Amino acid sequence: MKLTGAQILIQTLIEQGVTDVFGYPGGQVINIYDALYEYKDKINHVLTAHEQGASHAADGYSRATGKVGVCIATSGPGATNLVTGIATAMLDSIPLVAITGNVPNSLIGKDSFQEIDITGVTLPITKHNYFVSKIEDLADTIREAFAIAKSGRPGPVLIDIPKDVQVAKYDYEAQPIVEKTPLPKVEDSLIEQAAALIKEAKKPYIYVGGGAAGLGLGDAIAAFAEKIDAVIGCSFMGLSAIPQNCERFLGMQGMHGHYASSMSQDEADLILAIGVRFSDRATGNVSKFAKKSKIIQLDPDSAEVNKNVHVDLGLVGDVEDSFKRLAEKCESHSNPDWIYRVNELKKEEKTFEEEIAAESKATLTPKQVFEIINEKKPAKTIIATDVGQHQMWAAQNAHFDGPRRFVSSGGLGTMGFGLGAAIGAYVATKDPVVLITGDGSFGMNLNELATAVTYKIPVVIVLMNNGVLGMVRQWQTLFFGKRYSNTVLTRKTDFVALAKSFGAEGALAETAVEFKRAFETAIASGKPTVIDVRIDKDEMVLPMLPPGGAISDIITKVK
Amino acid sequence: MEDKKFVIAVYVDNKSGVLTRVTAMFTRRGFNIDALTVGETERSEYSRITISMSGDDYVKQQLINQLKKLYVVKKVEVLEDEPIKRELMLIKVENKSENRSEIMTAVDVFRASVIDYSPEGMCIEVTGNPSKIDAFVKLMQPFGILEMCRTGIVALDRGTTTLLNK
């Protein structure tokens, strides 16, 4: 069957199981959009307000499901607008296929209108990328891109297709969905060594990251912690991996981690790291990180072992398989002294929190906001966030209804990520979506409110409005002598009116009662709603490790 | 940890843009290489990149790990135990009559050859181990080096083993 390149592209996407794509048309993808029109019964295209929104939506789609997210943009500015989204996916190992059009082969290299070397631009922020110069290569390139995006440690792949390739005709024959390349199984001897280290350990700490969150190992990890009498902590990307009711779970560790989680990681004599990459935000001063501990690391990416911290034993390969074999190999034991010590740390943490709450004069604190959200959110709610203080409050306080229910930019820390990602997560799951954002982040890409309205996406946007760029302000308060350089937003934006002008709902909340009412109304309405939640500009994210500091430098209170 | 010189041989796809992918990774990961050569191999679908670098064991391992992650890279191998290394240099030196005989003796001893000659200067080709080339450069310095260029090394393991079959 002879098809045009544009038709082959869409057919191959359908063949690879793609049901939804996010994008924005333009001159060099007009043929692709023509093919989308033809296949609209089989593939749903979501038109965003901006290509960046499309890239974040494809990313959110993937985070919520594990499927490969797909976005489409035209050449030049369309392609460069995807860049932040692709980099966001790269840093968090999210499988994405980004498709861009380009000028015809005959105009390549001539600085033609809207011509950009997007494979060059995205070289360091993709797992791999392609410029498809010949139609003969098109279908197989797309298949290879899907295989690369989802295999091993996932990541984004970009395919740049010049216009003449979209127009040319070639034979197309459907092929099965490409399988993930199987990861190597770890040798028995290494599993035995790991089991021996665990057996010797008196203070074991299981450290869960994004690599484990996606595998759905939460219950198995909780059961394993019970068996070896360990506690569990997670990196930012590991949030939502462990069941909320697991008593051994201490929450996130690291720069803004829970006190008990960070401290017990520091005191542990064995860290079993599953799918983490020991980011600087998680370790603090790396030369002082986990000095009393042996580290066993399970990861699919061999380059992550011994990259940031010295690891005593690396189990590189199929993480799920290694974990299950290891869990089976280990015998039960009990570490009552360790559990006693961790419980003490938990008590200290509770005391700090109560002191902060008691001293607060605010009518509505971030903690109260999350108490209400946790209580009132429907089952299976996906919590998406932007980046800043609100994101860390969410990481510390939000309850998650299972894995893939937390959608947030960890590694790149992309302000403006949230709304697009929330839209993508909803398109993928049709489950309730709550976006936690701040007035800084929301201001970056609020244009996607138009997309939420157009596609009737009932996202509840909890806008934690403090009139400042809170996270930077917090640093300025603590480390820059309160010199608030460019972090005070003296804007006059009326977010309620803004929401209404987009065709969404809007509500103002200045007290806990008002917020509760607004949140319940928003959930019940089934409409995209912005709740303008007023919080104090001097609320801080605590605890905090100072920049370059170690766990022992943890700040739990600011006078 | 101590810095050591080492040589890494890499088989990559023989396609356009492959060298860019490899060198862009060096930039992004902050690797500073001493020399790099690339050329065709016994198999037309692959090119061979030879990288000379100095660093400690951590740097060496990181370089290998990151190279292996590139999809265009088919095989990465550290050439251990003194592989056969060769480098070629073209060097142009001033041809002063009082120095001529000393230069010619050096050319003779180093089994180099004069490939261009004029009353003002001569161009010499030297092939060998990088240390031999270094020694030759040092020897020529007092006579006035006008210009020089070195290819960077190419290297193969000794014996009959090949990289792709390792």
Short key terms for the protein model shown above:
heterodimer, A: 559 residues, alpha/beta, Rossmann fold, 3 domains, six-stranded parallel sheet, 23 helices, 20 strands, globular, B: 166 residues, alpha+beta, Alpha-Beta Plaits, five-stranded antiparallel sheet, four-stranded antiparallel sheet, 4 helices, elongated
Helix content of chain A: 25-40%
Number of helices of chain A: 23
Give the assembly state of these chains: heterodimer
CATH superfamily assignment of the largest domain in chain A? Answer: Thiamin diphosphate (ThDP)-binding fold, Pyr/PP domains
End-to-end Cα distance of chain A, whole Å, is 73 Å
Number of discrete helical segments of chain B: 4
CATH superfamily of the largest domain in chain B: ACT domain
Rg over alpha carbons of chain A: 24 Å
- In CATH, the architecture of the largest domain in chain A is 3-Layer(aba) Sandwich
Class based on secondary structure composition and strand pairing of chain B: alpha+beta
